[in-house]
Amino acid sequence: MTSSLVHGWRLLKWGRILARHGALRGLERDLNTPPRLRRLLRLARFGARVPDVPRYADAFEALGPAAIKLGQTLATRPDLVGDAAAADLLRLQDAVPPVPFTVIEQTMRASFGRPLDRLFSHIEPEPVGAASIAQVHRAITLDGRQVAVKVLRPGVEEDFARAIATYEWAAAQIEPMGGEIARLQPRLVIETFKRWTARELNFTREAASASELAETMTSEPEFFVPAVDWARTTGKVLTIEWIDGIKLSDRAALRAAGYDLPELARVLVHAFLRQAIADGFFHADMHQGNLFALPGNRVAAIDFGIMGRIDRRARVWLAEILYGLITGNYRRVAEIHFEAQYVPSHHSVEEFATALRAVGEPMRGLPVKDMSIGMMLDGLFGITRDFDMVTQPHLLLLQKTMVMVEGVATGLDPDINLWVTAAPLVEDWIRTELGPEAALADRLVADVRTLARLPDLVRRIEARYPAPGGAPPRPPLREIERVRVGGGWRYALAGAIGVAAGIAGMMLAAGW
User: pLDDT category, 127, cuts 50, 70, 90?
Assistant: First the structure.
């Protein structure tokens, strides 16, 4: 277990790096920052030359791979780090110099437990991409298929484990300070980040996520998920079908190839809402580098390390909230927040509805092409502090991905609107899940399940309260009867040991 002294030393080093980039200035000047924490921040920047304009992204890149991932997570939380910091953290590029191929070969051989020539006929030594967690090489299997091989960088698991342990320790120290820090629940934020990172570092989990997403998206043939090569996949190596496409970020190449950019934007938005609202399982890292255009105006996705999942109840609440904001039914949106316990009950529903109106009305007054999910989320984040709304981990990834998808879509088609494009899907889902037919179906399912439990309930009542004059309850079974009746191996083993001990005792008594 790492000592507090080690954690403190790491934080001091990281704090000095953050201070030199001006990344602590906003937190230090925030009136909601606890005085004790403010003193620690001043100590961290003591003697450092602080730039006039903070460079948050540069600071996190200087801290290393774990900090890059944390910074990308914080970029989705303007309520936590502020609008300026969140906007600058969006510049974070998870690209690092590649590991030499000889090292990658050793990792692959150790992970597969056999020579690589038994799995691949060729592996290109030069990677097609290198990030903080892994790098990707193009390869050809023995049966001639082109695949992408993603290999975990050596030592990355240990680096992340050390950094996250210190993040957890720091969060545990500052959350008890109370006030605004406690409301933002830093321990919960770090715990959520830890879970996401654990999934990213386990490539069998990523492969399973890709396989599950492919199954759920069979109804969306325009959205393509590459097939996993399970025979060549381990916890540290992921082999997946190669994608021959053009990145959605390369608009010039897309136009030159004859792609319909507004149609690509429509496919992306529709596919995302199908995943998030209809299925509750979605690709949560849909930035431009992970999305490709395929012939026929199809969209392909890669990199399934970060996936989101929300249950049906949360999806119903989300759909009602979005629908209420767009239609102007702020009272119902406020009631949903209280029903979901997003807002503490000591606040006023009417006051919260008025605050929501301040968010929704400016958006509703804009032209369709200017209505933005990002604007709506910024507004909602702005009122969280006034109404003591705590972090909702199951919605963090969804919020981040909604903004990300909207940015990619508007880059392809500046006139697109997330809701108008997907209105048929959203309206159909709301009607299906919230309409009278859905309510009747839910009631029938609940009643059938209750009826199915009745026989067992009656049997338990009879066992607890036997009829007058009935047979008395049987005494507990002796061990030998348990062996005969139960058939459990543990009882049989106990009985056999007992018999053997008895025989041995008799033999000793007889002088054998």
Answer: very high
The partner residues of 228 in beta bridges, in order of sequence, read: 240
End-to-end Cα distance, the chain: 56
DSSP state of 276: I
Question: What tokens does 352 get?
Answer: 């919260």
Residue 50 main-chain phi, psi, to 5 deg? -95, 125
**C-alpha–C-alpha distance, residues 118 and 140, integer Å:** 12
Residue tagged active-site, from 285, 303, 311, 378: 285
* Better-predicted residue by pLDDT, 288 or 322: 288
pLDDT score for 446: 66
Query: CB-hemisphere CA count at 13 Å for 22?
Result: 10
Task: Name the packing angle between helices 35-44 and 4-20 (round to 10°).
Answer: 70
Pairing of strands 223-224, 298-301: parallel
Please name the amino acid found at residue 115: P
- Look-up: residue for tokens 């934020």? 189
- Measured CA to CA in angstroms, residue 256 lies from 62, 223, 250 at distances of 38, 21, 10
Q: Which two tokens stand for residue 274?
A: 């199908």
Pick from 393, 470, 302: nearest CA to 77: 393
**Phi, psi angles (nearest 5°) of residue 276:** -75, -45
Extract the tokens encoding 67: 């900090």
Token pair recorded at residue 408 = 């990619």
For residues 194, 197, 202, 208, the Cα torsion angle rounded to the nearest 10 degrees is 100
3-state SS class at 134: strand
Note if 378 is an active site residue: no
Q: Dihedral, CA atoms, 16, 17, 20, 24, nearest 10 degrees?
A: -80
186, with CB counted inside 10 A (0-12, 13-18, 19+), is buried
Q: Phi and psi for 111 in degrees, rounded to 5?
A: -75, -40
For the chain, the C-alpha Rg in angstroms (whole number) is 29
Inter-CA distances, 61 with 68, 194, 356, Å = 6, 19, 37
Return the bridge partners of 238, or none: 150
Using left for φ > 0, alpha for ψ between -120 and 50, and beta otherwise, residue 7 falls in alpha
Written as six digits, the tokens of 30 are 């925030």
| Secondary structure class of 149 (helix, strand, coil) | strand
Q: Encode 165-198 in three state secondary structure.
A: HHHHHHHHHHHHHCHHHHHCCHHHHHHHHHHHHH
**CA–CA gap between residue 342 and residue 293 (Å, rounded):** 39
Q: How does pLDDT run across 261-301, given as a tens digit for each residue?
A: 999 999 998 898 888 878 889 998 888 888 999 999 999 99
Q: What are phi and psi of 307, to 5 degrees?
A: -125, 150
Cα 143 from Cα 151, distance rounded (Å): 21
What predicted TM-score, i.e. pTM, was given to this entire model?
Answer: 0.70
The pLDDT score that the predictor gives to residue 502 is 45
Asked if residues 265 and 413 have their Cβ atoms less than 8 Å apart, the reply is yes
